[in-house]
Amino acid sequence: MTTNRIAFQGEPGAYSHQACRDARPDMEALPCRTFEDVIDAVRAGEADLAMLPVENSTYGRVADIHHLLPESGLHIVDEAFVRVHISLLALPGTPLSEITDAMSHTVLLGQCRGFMRQHGIRGITGADTAGSARIVADRGQRHIAALASPLAGEIYGLDRLADEIEDRQNNTTRFLVMSRQPDHRRRPNRAGEDGMITSFVFRVRNIPAALYKAMGGFATNGVNMTKLESYMVDGVFTATQFYADIEGHPDDANVRLALEELSYFTSMMNILGVYPADPLRAMQRMAQG
Fold it and tell me: In sequence order, what E strands does 26-180 have?
């Protein structure tokens, strides 16, 4: 059964909603209250795909998401990088000079300090970004604006008084697109370019220097590891699980050899997904020289 829907966490107009529109413009976006609800919607067949944020270039990884991925029963089939562009949204016809307060999630308030200081605007903490836009629209108070995505302004009928007001112009969130079924087929990314990412979790065996030895196979086989993060399992300090992203496909000879070597030093290894690299990866690498 297919629904042609993609589930995301948050209200309509959230940055996760923007990610759905950017990565799957032909699908209906389904808002959900929590990350768990997003996963459950896909597992129950209410949506075909899940859009889940995993990390932000400014604030690091999204809390708890790495615990949910291995237990979700879903498989990563794509990734999407979304630039966090922040707009100042107000009731139609309101001039910027009339705005005295701006509501948003505390994270976004912290990203627009320069603009707000320049215009004498005071921050008001809201539950989330799109929800703040909805509140501004519902209250009808002209002096209160919202800091949110341009999409939120479109959805809630607000004017965009200023765009891209974030202090850091490279703020980007990485999302994972997840499905009930894995898809390991080689395929180009949205820009028609080659390049695959393999994501997996593993636990090392209880032997000296196990992690060092486990990582050795990637170095000797020339496999680039773009991410390695550890986190506790079940709240026990001695039970550590690792999440890793590598460049390449398990069918590539060097990746296959590296994963085989990894297996000698791990008690568990689970591939979460094999998917095309987002075109922004290559662009960021070029920008870094």
Answer: 28-32, 49-56, 60-61, 75-83, 87-90, 101-104, 122-125, 144-148, 159-162, 172-179
